Amino acid sequence: MNDPDTTNIGHYDPQALPQTRSFSELPPLSLYIHIPWCIAKCPYCDFNSHKAPSGELPENTYIEALLHDLESEVPDIWGRQISSVFIGGGTPSLFSASAIDRLLSGVRALLTLPPGIEITLEANPGTFEQQRFADFNAAGINRLSLGIQSFNDHHLKALGRVHGSDESLRAAELARAAGFDNFNLDLMYGLPGQTVNQALEDLQQAINVDPKHLSLYQLTLEPNTLFHKYPPELPDHDALHDMQQAISEQLRQHDYRRYEISAWARNGAVSEHNRNYWQFGDYIGIGAGAHGKISRADTATITRRIKQKKPEHYLATAGRPDCVIEQHEIPLADTGLEFMMNALRLVDGFNPLIFRSHTGIDIQPWKKALDAAEAAGLLNYSAVSIRPTDRGLDFLNDLLEHFMSPV
Length: 407
Hints:
Blueprint: E1 29-35, E2 37-38, E3 50-51, H1 59-73, E4 82-89, H2 97-110, E5 118-123, H3 130-139, E6 143-149, H4 153-158, H5 165-177, E7 183-189, H6 196-209, E8 213-218, H7 226-229, H8 237-253, E9 257-260, E10 263-265, H9 272-278, E11 282-287, E12 291-296, E13 301-307, H10 311-317, E14 324-329, H11 335-343, H12 352-359, H13 367-375, E15 379-381, E16 386-388, H14 390-394, H15 396-401
Parallel strand pairs: 1-4, 1-11, 2-3, 4-5, 5-6, 6-7, 7-8
Antiparallel strand pairs: 8-10, 9-10, 12-13, 13-14, 15-16
Helix pairs in contact: 1-2, 2-3, 6-8
């Protein structure tokens, strides 16, 4: 595969930028809730996760802190309806179903949740039993995301996972038996020593469970992880390319449709929560290390904020101004890149009208960037659609370079 020609980089037109944003409507608003504890820290993980303390987790204290945190966010989103809820981590399934029930009851008291709203809980094999899953379902969770990663015991051990392949299969079976018709399986490929056939065997095991949604992630060595410090030997570029092509073909044969770089769905069962991220929607972030993005029409701003990362610091500050450790407004000139970093992960791209409604700016200042990206074969665009080509999905960083501010 040849690299694309990036000699003619587009960028934006500073003269076409407005002086301020103007929102005629605000984007959809999701809620993300972070529960930071895990049984053990995986060597590849760069999420804000922490080894669970010995003894009982501080469920009641943490839920109280989450609700104080949420209450402090309400003035910025007053009157807006929530479109999805995602409880991630960490391993949220370490919390009891009664704790999740109290959490969601508190959320409903503070926010407007429409009937049938997608409410997802991340869970890892080995942290539940069927009754626990049934109780999560009764508490209001209607979608599960199971962190399987692999069905191969050798690869699970290499990844530092605390469960085995039998538990992986049992987790999916228990989820269905507990009443979850809608669940996702997370799988990784490009693992240390993994062959193409082994990756396809993993995938077939997942397909046999018949999930509506599959997330396929290539293992990458992220900074500040044990794997980055002591890198394992991973498959080479050619093997990874063969793996990706074979995975895509196998999923298509089983009626899964790729709708985002790493996400495949059957019968239209896309993740509404993640799609809102990818379309540059808004989201409240509560919990240790949670990120949030909020647009406001009255101030004509889009603001990102991050909460205290260490659980003990979060518990001590939740609901107070010092719980926020970082906050900044997205500059007008950075809007194109910020939006495209999300939306160009979507296979079908987006309608330009979404850019206008979700950013408060017309897309015109980035026309030069769009023209150059299209000329490089990375993107197709018209008055009603802007979407990456297959080449653009393969070389997303090169595509995004067109939307960076010129040096």
